[in-house]
Amino acid sequence: MELSQKQAGPASGSPLPAPSRTPTPAWAAADGSVSASIGGLQEYYNDLCMEKSKEIKPFILQILQEVDEEIEKGSVGITLNIAGNSRSLSGERVTGEDFWILCRVLKNNSYINGLDVRYNLLSDVGAYYAAKLLQKNRTLKHLRMTGNKIENKGGMFFAAMLQINSSLEKLDLGDCDLGMQSVIAFATVLTQNRTIKGLNLNRPILYGEQEESTVHLGHMLKENQCLVELHMCKHDIKNCGMKQLCDALYLNRSLQYLDVSWLSVVSNNIEGKGLVALSQSMKTNPTLSHIYIWGNKFDEATCVAYSDLIHTGRLKSDNTDVEPFVVDGHVYLAEVSNGLKRHYYWTPGYGEACSLSSNAGFSLAPVGQHL
Question: Is the separation of the CB atoms in 45 and 101 below 8 Å?
Fold first, then answer.
C-alpha cells in the first residue's frame, strides 16, 4: 500500500500522503563522498566533514571513537548513543547538518543496529535524512528520535519510509510534535508493515474532538498481527476512542503492551465506562498482558474492575501502574511506579534499572535496550 501523493484531510478515511517535496539544504547539495570502507567511523566522519567543509564536532568524534573500539573488540549489534539529554554530552546537541554527515557515515555500516538521537536539534530535515538512511540501511533495527521537533512533515517522512523498509523493528517518535495527518499515516502504513514490533507515538499535537487518530489506530490493530508494543500517551483518548481500541483488541493477537497513560493509556481523558471496557477486553484477549492507566478518570466501577483483574491473576501486579486498596468497604486504586521504561526521559548517570516491573518494555520487545 502506498500513501497517496495528494493531500487528504485528517478526517478522511483515505490513505494519507507521502511528502511531495524533500528538503534540500544548501549544505547537502553535493553528494560526492569518501568511500565508507576507509578506516574506522571516526576517520570516515573526519574525512567527510573536511570534504564537505563542515565543522568537526569533538563530541561526535569521541563517541565514534568509542564505537570503533567496540568494533575492534568484535562487538556487533551496537547502539550509537548520541542522546542530547545525556550528561556525558555536557549540553552539546546534534544539528540537522551534523546528522546529515552521520547518516552518510552509517549508511553502509553493518555493526550498528541502533541509533539513539533523542532530545537533539533535529527538525523535519533531520527526519528526512533519517528516513533516507533507513531506506538504504538494512542493519538498523531501532531508532529513537524522542524529543526532536520533527512535527507533521517529519512524521510523514517516516511513515513513507515504513512502506519501503523491512528491517526496522522499533521506532520512537514520542514528544516529536507529530500532527494528526502523520499519526493517521502511521496507522495506514502499519496495516501492511509486518516488521515493526514497537512504536511510540506519545504526545502528538492533535486538534478536534472526533478522535480520528484513535479510530485509525484501532482499525490498524484489527489488521496488524505483528505489533507488540504501542505507546499512545497524551492522545486525549475519551470513552469513544477507548471503545474503538477495545473492539480492536478483541481481534488482535500480537499486542502485549498498550500504553494509554502519559506513556500508556495513562493521562488521557478516559472515564469509567471506557476503562471498564478495556478491562473486559483482557478477558477475551489472551495476549495483552500489560496495561497502564494512571492519570485517567477512575470511578468505583473502574476500581472494582481492575481490582478483580489483579486478584484473579489475569493482570499481574507488576504489569500495571495501579494497586487496589479498600477503605470503608469501597475499592480505590493507588499509583505504583511500574512502567515500561524507568529511564525513558533521561539518561542515568550510572547503573541500570534492571527491574522487569519498571522496564517491562525491554522484555516485551527486547530489540534495543536503549529505546
Answer: yes
